[in-house]
């Protein structure tokens, strides 16, 4: 018995020594950042443009690395904070998340939202079977350059353009995450006469729980989901003091 206890404690110690998602990703980003100045210039252009970057930025290795070093940890924490609030305030039953087996992030970038959700799951269900069987998480992004980041984190990645035909072929999942990506992705979708984007109806049909986070002051405002599509929302401050707007929808029958 004592031997079993000892083995368990060695495993726990080993787990403590494992690098965190942020450490793993930052190590990769440092290696990828061969021209810091280029990355910084492109990053600051987007910050000035209400936190919206052109697609040519995402195609640039130095931009991706610089962006990751600036924002990965902040966005991981933001997703976790949003999830904690949603569950603590009883908006979605905690037990739902115990059974989550499939997660998709749309416009995943370096995968911070998936890591935030995984961190929430690990903390919420620390001693249960939930932790031994992590959900299958896939990041989708049109920019292939993010693949290394997702693989570094042990996540799956598919280089895909998110549009109507993407959803026609997409299997349903338990959770869809969208973090600071709806402004760009929504451009691929039709708008009704009130300007409402068809993206949200389409996304809602593919997951039981949808979480969308964006900058409260960004250009994404017109692209955000609304109560009309069954979404609730609240605001949160990220670690850098920026105000984020969180939209979520829970439809267990999906
Ligand atoms: C501002 S970044 C957000 C990245 C990450 N989710 C985060 O929170 O940091 C937007 C991402 O959406 C991706 N993207 C934009 N339009 C897309 C589309 N139609 N299909 C797939 N990915 C898209 C971009 O390549 C980029 O990685």
Quick overview:
46% of the residues lie in helices and 18% in strands. It is built from twelve helices and seven strands.
List key phrases describing it:
disordered N terminus; 254 residues; globular; seven-stranded mixed β-sheet; binds S-adenosylmethionine
Structure description:
The protein has 254 residues and is α/β, with parallel strands linked by helices. Helix content is 46%, strand content 18%. It contains twelve helices and seven strands. It has helices at 2-17, 21-32, 36-48, 55-58, 61-88, 94-98, 112-124, 129-132, 147-152, 164-169, 182-186, 199-204, and strands at residues 102-106, 136-141, 156-159, 173-179, 207-215, 232-237, 243-250. The chain has a seven-stranded mixed β-sheet with strand order 3-2-1-4-5-7-6. The radius of gyration is 18 Å and the shape is globular. It starts with a helix and ends with a strand. The model is unreliable at 1-10 (pLDDT under 50). The structure holds S-adenosylmethionine. S-adenosylmethionine (SAM) binds next to helix 5, helix 7 and helix 11.
């Amino acid at each position: 018995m004592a031997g079993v206890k000892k083995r368990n404690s060695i495993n726990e110690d080993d787990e403590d020594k494992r690098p965190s998602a942020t450490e793993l990703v930052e190590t990769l980003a440092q290696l990828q950042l061969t021209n810091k100045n280029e990355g910084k210039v492109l990053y600051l252009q987007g910050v000035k443009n209400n936190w919206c970057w052109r697609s040519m930025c995402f195609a640039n290795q130095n931009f991706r690395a610089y962006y990751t070093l600036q924002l990965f940890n902040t966005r991981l924490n933001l997703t976790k904070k949003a999830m904690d609030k949603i569950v603590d305030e009883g908006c979605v039953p905690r037990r739902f998340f115990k059974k989550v087996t499939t997660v998709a992030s749309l416009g995943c970038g370096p995968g911070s939202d998936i890591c935030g959700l995984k961190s929430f799951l690990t903390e919420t269900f620390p001693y249960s079977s939930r932790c031994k069987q992590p959900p299958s998480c896939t990041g989708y992004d049109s920019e292939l350059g993010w693949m290394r980041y997702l693989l570094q984190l042990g996540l799956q990645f598919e280089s895909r353009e998110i549009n109507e035909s993407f959803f026609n072929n997409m299997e349903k999942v338990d959770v869809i995450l969208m973090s600071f990506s709806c402004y760009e992705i929504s451009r691929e979708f039709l708008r009704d006469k009130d300007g409402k984007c068809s993206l949200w109806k389409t996304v809602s049909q593919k997951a039981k729980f949808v979480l969308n986070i964006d900058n409260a002051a960004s250009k994404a405002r017109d692209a955000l989901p609304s109560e009309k599509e069954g979404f609730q929302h609240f605001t949160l401050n990220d670690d850098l003091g920026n105000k984020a707007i969180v939209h979520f929808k829970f439809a267990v029958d999906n």
